[in-house]
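> tool_call: predict_assembly(chains=two)
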Amino acid sequence: MYLNVEKRKTQEKCDITFPWFGMDIGGTLVKLVYFEPKDITAEEEQEEVENLKSIRRYLTSNTAYGKTGIRDVHLELQDLTLCGRTGNLHFIRFPTHDLPAFLQMGRNKHFSSLHTTLCATGGGAYKFEADFRTMADLQLHKLDELDCLIRGVLYIDSVVSSGPSECYYFENPTDPDRCIQRPYTLENPYPLLLVNIGSGVSILAVYSESNYKRVTGTSLGGGTFLGLCCLLTGCSTFEEALEMASQGESTRVDKLVRDIYGGDYERFGLPGWAVASSFGNMMSKDKRESVSKEDLARATLVTITNNIGSITRMCALNENIERVVFVGNFLRVNTLSMKLLAYAMDYWSKGQLKALFLQHEGYFGAVGALLELLHPS
Amino acid sequence: MAEFVRVDSSTSGHTMDKSITLPPDEIFRNLENAKRFAIDIGGSLTKLAYYSTVQHKVAKVRSFDHTTKEATGDNLYEISVQEEVTARLHFIKFENAYIETCLDFVKDHLVNTETKVIKATGGGAHKFKELIERKLGLKVDKEDEMTCLIKGCNFVLRNIPHEAFVYAKHADSEFRFQTTQPDIFPYLLVNIGSGVSIVKVESEDKFERIGGSSIGGGTFWGLGALLTKTKRFDELLQLASKGQHTSVDMLVKDIYGGSYGSLGLTGDLIASSFGKSATADKEFSKEDMAKSLLHMISNDIGQLACLYAKLHNLSRVYFGGFFIRGHPVTMHTITYSINFFTKGEVQALFLRHEGYLGAIGAFLKGAEEDNPNQYSWGENYAGSSGLMSVSPDMNPMQRARSGTFDMLEMDRLEGKLVNLPLLQDASSYIPDTVDLTEDAHAREYWLYCFEEALDGVVKRAVASQPDMPEAAERAEKFRQKYRHKLQTLRHQPFAYGSLTVRSLLDTREHCLNEFNFPDPYSKIKQRENDMALKYYQKAVKCLDELSWEERQYALVRGVLAGNVFDWGAKAVSDVLESDPEFGFEQAKRQLEERPWLVDSYDQWFERLKGPPHKCAMFFVDNSGVDIILGVMPFVRELLSRGTEVVLASNSGPALNDVTNGELQILTESIAAMDPVIQAGLREDRLTLVQSGSSSPCLDLSRLDKVLAMVVRERKTDLVIIEGMGRAIHTNYYAMLRCESLKMAVIKNSWLADRLGGKLFSVVFKYEVPAPSQHSAALTPS
């Protein structure tokens, strides 16, 4: 991505004390990015307080924290120059409902003695601000989540140069056999539609680094997929739900155009395979009794994904934008949804719209918060 | 997607007694002459449509032959009752469970054998094809569902005033009916069946499915059944209406602790539907899950509808389909969603006869050779059951009623009805002065008033047909029917759209017609016309003796005094009945002295000193003294000034209002004694037109095409509207593009009281359109 400003900024030296964190507290997940300096001088090492060392060691030597914290090692960005310092950027997540345990850990490790500013975004920065203060004696610097999101996206795309391309798309999205992931270079990114799929969905039209607007949003998002799956199948995690969905068949649950017309509905140019009514077959008692949990999980995934696709497509038309970048943790390990979105964008727009995806799908808000710490905008 | 999927009646769980005895003559009316059948079979309801002719009696007037006139005594004209055949459309809605019984009944009573084909639409048409063909011996001809739906939609929007409404759950009146737009196109129809179809309609034959969604009524039903183990759609809605979505949904405040201020997202907004069921490890109640699902689906449909409306720049969005049909819960959630996403710029509109659209459209497809669209049609209040009460919850009584039969009847009107070309803004014109659905106090009074007057109307009806021994029995049936209508309206004021004094009067006329009392006042009108004519020359002579200045005032007082003679007003009909000597002079004495309650006589008088008007259109009121001694001298003066006059009178009878037929005879007879009137007729400066209406009130948006043509051709620059029904109950606030004069005497003490006057207060409202509305409003009074 074309981003000299942010790149230049990050090469200037600053004297912000370590540790450097950026945090995004969402409705379902907390996303944490941590910059581990690798260029620590002997002198610095001498001065470094024990607490700081222990935090660094704890975060970099583990890939799992407590019962639910996870470090996405494959996303780690190495030898990154940030603020004149070189180091690795780590990406960590844990469920929002485990935030008390995280705060407890912060308290145990005397995090507050480091006198650092903790930059946080997402709704939780507001909701849990008091808890940070009372439970861990930490003062949050609260940031707007959409500002952070856009800053994060633009930055990551500009710094990733080695390894798999940050931005990618699916070639031949309408042909399952030939559909493959391809790198994409966002040279002139604007205008673009940025669709962030977390628990809910926000759709932003971005015209420049600082000029963007939230076009709309929908409450049918990742939280809806997982929530309905939990109720319908008894599963309890996103991974479980996705696993089930991958083995199910949604056409047993949904009513298709061909189920009604025996084929295409030519009068309106609707193909027979199109879903006429999501969960439409479930109106019949017999069919309710014959579907599997996997089928239900798959139908839920398809329903939510297609709906996001059609709202996005309408926004793109209304805003006259042809490029759409999908981000958010709903897409994590969710190739099914990404391919569905790619297909839907391509098919219904007759090739006009391109669906793009980013490797660090859910972490941009947290990255934006970290950048705000180093270079207040 | 459209109602592509209609579910078998078995899965909807209805267990109806199929051998139910129907009250058939009440439901399948006029079957003997029925032809052109159409049927729309949905998931649970069947709609049958047919075209029939109705024979009913009409009173006709005929001038006596001049040569024998001397021999026929006093009467100027004779009245004869004739049989007239009019066209009527019948639509009947019933549960699918009754289909066999109904088809049997139709077969048994069908006399007309020309019919060979029945048009069919709806998902069930296929399933019942064989049954229909066997039972009726007609060939089933299937029509495209969406085409039928759009055709039906265009038809009701065009022909039924107050067809569309806005739903407001917490308002005093839940239904806010919309005025009929002169141009119904373009609009968006969002049909929520199993899936959702979004159709853009640009003209009668041009429409396009511009989008849709698979998340629709089938998703609510199917997913709802899985989540709550509740099978029926209605039951799911009932569960939803009792639930709390906030325990299942993740709200903005669940994430933020409050609102997301910088984006203006309030804390109560749903951030993630079912978001809490992903994290909270607990049981959720069926009610709460159903409610959450309802919100999720309604919001999603509303959002898509708004996005499509915006993309195509459309502001009229109608919602229909089984998800909506008469369900207050879904109408409310859809309305909420549209308001949210468009910030109030677009209103969700619903239709009173939404359930009939497919049947109407299928019927129209089959009736194309009769050219139904070249006529205007009017809802027959006597034969239609009206909108069902849906407020506030679906109670068992109402559910029971929806399980029976619902009817809609439409009468074919003479020719096509159009707007008065002089309306300032036809799209915002509302004929009625008070909407009784919104004014509970006024509603109570008028319903009481019409009920009180019922005995008198029955008596008059019987008296009008002295030679018919069964008249009393018919009049009694009329009484029951109209009283039942009044009771229905007491409980469901919105049953026929906006409730107004006009609709109450029209309903009474429709009911009288239904029982063959076409013109109960014909003989009274005849007698009064004859009597008044005797005084015409004397009255004119008196006026001619006055100075110009005095005469102008006397003419206005004459019109007002004449207007006191009104059998429609209870206060007056009492006097008329008890004191037949109540004369024109006495009426003048009864009139309020100036200044009148509304008094712009001085401005009118000043105007008269100026150049004459080019052409005046006079909407007249009552027979007898009113038209002959009040209006005609006034008309005579206008003619003398050099103004052309067009007299607009009712096409058909209503109370003692003068009809076009009567007025023609009266005018000729006056012309015989008055050279001014005679010259006016001869030189074509005085013409008579019919209004196209048979109502004691006046709807300036539904007038005879010829009238509108005359207005344009003659460059009408003055409109005079006379009488309480036409100038007070309706049109009091009507804004015209030319000068207008509204004259009436208030003959109802309650209304007088309301307007701040007393019985026989005078309204004389002369208005000149302001060059600019805005500057006029800013001028201090």
